[in-house]
Automatic annotation (TrEMBL):
GO BP annotations, alphabetical order: Mo-molybdopterin cofactor biosynthetic process
Species assigned in the record: Methanoculleus palmolei
PROSITE patterns (UniProt xref): MOCF_BIOSYNTHESIS_2
Record has Endoplasmic reticulum as a keyword: no
Record pathway: Cofactor biosynthesis; molybdopterin biosynthesis
InterPro entries reported in the protein's UniProt record: MoaB/Mog-like_dom_sf, MoaB/Mog_dom, MoCF_biosynth_CS, MoeA-like, MoeA_C_domain_IV, MoeA_C_domain_IV_sf, MoeA_linker/N, MoeA_linker/N_sf
Descriptive protein name: Molybdopterin-binding protein
CDD domains: MoeA
Keywords: Molybdenum cofactor biosynthesis
Transferase in keyword set: no
Source domain of life: Archaea
Signal peptide: none
PANTHER family: MOLYBDOPTERIN BIOSYNTHESIS PROTEIN (PTHR10192), MOLYBDOPTERIN MOLYBDENUMTRANSFERASE (PTHR10192:SF16)
Amino acid sequence: MMRSALVRKPFARVLEMMRSTFPRPDRTTRVPAAGAAGRITAKPVHSPLTVPATNIAARDGFAVVSSETLGAGDRNPALLRNPCRVNTGNAIPPGYDAVVMIEDIVGEEGRWSTQKTVLPGEHIHPAGEEIREGEMILPAGHTIRPCDIGALLSYGITEVDVREVKVGLIPTGSELVPAGRTPGPGEVIESNTAVAAALLGEAGASCTRYGIVRDDPELLREAIGRGIRENDLLLVSAGSSAGTRDFTAGVIGDLGDVLVHGIAMKPGKPAIVGRIKGKPVIGLPGYPIAAQTVVRELALPLLAAWGFRPRPPERLRVRLAGAVMTGPETDEFVFLTVMPAGEQYAATPLPRGAGTQMTAVRANAYLHVPAGAGNLPAGTEVDVLLTGNRTG
């Protein structure tokens, strides 16, 4: 099995390569409309109904022939020859073309009069006012909102075709144990694939977490082969570096192509981008913060290029409360704690490292420093992306 060398490719170039190399999978599924919030329509959705199906009353009152009300007023009520009592939403009988509101009616049964002139169509919702049969409700590529669900159901749509992308997540490492089990000496609870599934699920992906694969190239080969068959994108957690038990790049190379092994980004530099049977495979570093960064900065942009996007994070202008030191050829992603400081916001850089997950827990923002941007001294104003609520 050949091992690929860690030659760090520029981060921006890797992103562009991924977008151009992997076209959007042509996968769709049909889901209940009532549970379709956040899903993306696979094709235009047209109404099978005309709504309302006939003219309906917009107010409680009497359906009338509008010409009978001409000249009506408080001192000169107009006698209605054959008014028809209607409530809001009732169908307007044939021959009637307006509704007089109940508060404008005087008299008694058999001799109703109106104190107000109404025009043809007044206080009536005409047939098809909301939508007509065959009219488009939603276009293709539309992210379904809760308000869209009300329209779909009201117009007779109970199921809708949506785009689907399947993502497989394989955790690797003989030291891993599943969540819920107390780790022994040298063991670690597996969490990277759970975090990745949560991040990708927010973008609308259907994620499958597979069982832990021990450090055995044949077991990993079998797991990756299955993951490629069953998914559109495969993420393999850990085994992406160049140690004696890091088999991910070698297995990807045996089954397909290793396009990138090593990216000029921090954290996340050992990441792998491969291709097997035309499908993308991303090898995640084992350290949690590095793995999360690679998912956020590589996997999510690929899904976005395919039309699957989570709600974009809020961008905020802040002043750095501490210096940020960066390398000249590396894109760096720095966690921050953002707090109000007078009329501005101050951002304190948190200790940097790929391992500790509490850094991400304590942070409520992060800063992307592109390669070549140089060091950022305290007091520099920068734009950050929020990962939580503003503190304070």
